[in-house]
Design goal:
The chain has about 400 residues and is α/β, with parallel strands linked by helices. Helices cover about 40% and strands about 15% of the residues. The protein contains 13 helices and 13 strands. The protein binds pyridoxal-5'-phosphate. Pyridoxal-5'-phosphate (PLP) binds next to helix 3.
């Protein structure tokens, strides 16, 4: 591995210099007013990135997985029914967590490569006339397969059925890199972590709660202590935590929000679209297919690329690390060995991406794939030369 090369894994993502410095702080008293001047702007910044006017933002010393647990344990009780689709490793793990909390999960098995089946959700919700389903789980961006789902369509499924279930969205690999609309989509709990779109080291679970989700906490009886949002809210009212906060990471989060908001969310999303279009042009020039089955579900933050029959996709990842000091993502679960993943979220430029595409090409040629060196790079160059580019001023 080389510390000079960017990583092309779908999280943790590359950390901009300015954010590394922001995380590197001397110890401060986390019960002093100085801490409030970090905490409150960080929460405001997250709320804006979520595109919400009023979401309650809570930030735990944890990771995205802790955010899932925060969503479930604060709003549900043992035996409650939830609806979820399994279309990749991350939706699978969230379902597994529900089951371990003694929730009853109605699982819609979905082909790995397809998006969330909003029509199936609609049918199930309509049939649930006595409203046993208390929450609908949706993985906005399935990082294992490079598939984005239409959360607006899930909201419409709920509304069309007149169903009161809460809508929980895993936005761990979308928030901060792809459009996410907490208020417009009527999201009740949004979950993310610090190490993806927010470009920081792992260590923060970041969640937004709607007013309805906050109301559900009053009757929810699943056990919770560390992740109790009321304890956290009480702490926040005094500019403090119920325990010791990760001050450096929170300072980094505050800066990360400033970076994203000063670039402009639309510009951030356009940058990720352009970078992803370049990757997809390269994949097509290589004659390979994405795991994502159709353009309307192509993710702008991660591409899972199917390797031809007879090639183990994981070999590409191993070879890239050993030979070129570059990290790509391996296939997970059902698609292990069948896909390798190029992560293109967080802090990334066209130029960085070209180096990743060139490296993937070298690896495939080294391993005997039938591809022409330079073909993917040239296809991506065409995209990057012609698509409108907004030059990012280096905040460092
Ligand atoms: C990375 C990821 C997670 C898990 O987050 P951790 O921070 O590793 O706990 C959950 N969901 C999705 C979609 C992810 O990409």
């Amino acid at each position: 591995m080389s510390f000079q090369n960017p990583v092309f894994i779908p999280g943790p993502t590359n950390i901009p210099e300015v954010l590394r410095k922001a995380c590197d702080m001397p110890t401060i008293d986390h019960r002093s007013p100085l801490f409030g001047s970090i905490l409150h702007p960080a929460r405001d910044g997250v709320r804006q990135v979520l595109k919400s006017a009023s979401a309650e933002v809570f930030i735990f010393p944890a990771t995205g997985t802790g955010g899932w647990e925060t969503a479930l344990t604060n709003t549900l009780s043992a035996g409650d029914k939830v609806l979820a689709a399994r279309n990749g490793m991350f939706s699978h793990r969230w379902i597994d967590m529900c089951q371990r909390h003694n929730l009853e999960v109605e699982v819609v098995e979905t082909h790995w490569g397809d998006g969330l089946p909003a029509e199936r959700y609609a049918e199930i919700l309509k049939a649930d006339s006595n409203h046993r389903i208390k929450a609908v789980l949706a993985t906005h961006n399935e990082t294992a397969t490079g598939v984005v789902s239409d959360i607006g369509a899930v909201r419409r499924a709920l509304d069309d059925a007149g169903h009161p279930a809460l809508l929980f969205v895993d936005g761990v690999s979308s928030i901060g890199s792809m459009d996410f609309r907490f208020d417009d989509w009527g999201v009740d709990v949004a979950v993310t972590g610090s190490q993806k779109g927010f470009m920081l080291p792992a260590g923060l679970a970041i969640v937004g709660f709607s007013e309805r989700a906050m109301a559900a906490t009053k009757t929810a009886s699943l056990p919770r202590t560390f992740f109790d949002v009321h304890d956290m809210a009480q702490g926040y009212a005094n500019s403090a935590y119920p325990y010791t906060p990760s001050v450096g990471l929170l300072n980094g989060l505050n800066q990360a929000c400033t970076m994203l908001l000063s670039e402009g969310l639309d510009a951030v999303f356009a940058r990720h679209t352009r970078i992803a279009n370049g990757v997809r042009a390269a994949v097509s020039a290589w004659g390979l297919d994405l795991c994502a089955t159709s353009p309307n579900v192509y993710s702008n933050t991660v591409s899972a690329i199917c390797t031809p029959e007879g090639f183990n996709a994981t070999d590409i990842v191993t070879h890239a690390a050993e030979t070129y000091g570059v990290a790509f993502g391996v296939g997970l679960g059902e698609v292990a060995g069948k896909v390798f993943r190029i992560g293109h979220l967080g802090s990334l430029t066209d130029v960085m991406m070209l180096s990743g595409i060139a490296t993937a090409e070298m690896c495939m040629a080294d391993l005997g794939f039938d591809i022409t060196l330079g073909s993917g790079v040239a296809a991506a160059q065409d995209v990057y030369r012609t698509a409108p580019a907004t030059l990012i001023k280096d905040a460092a």
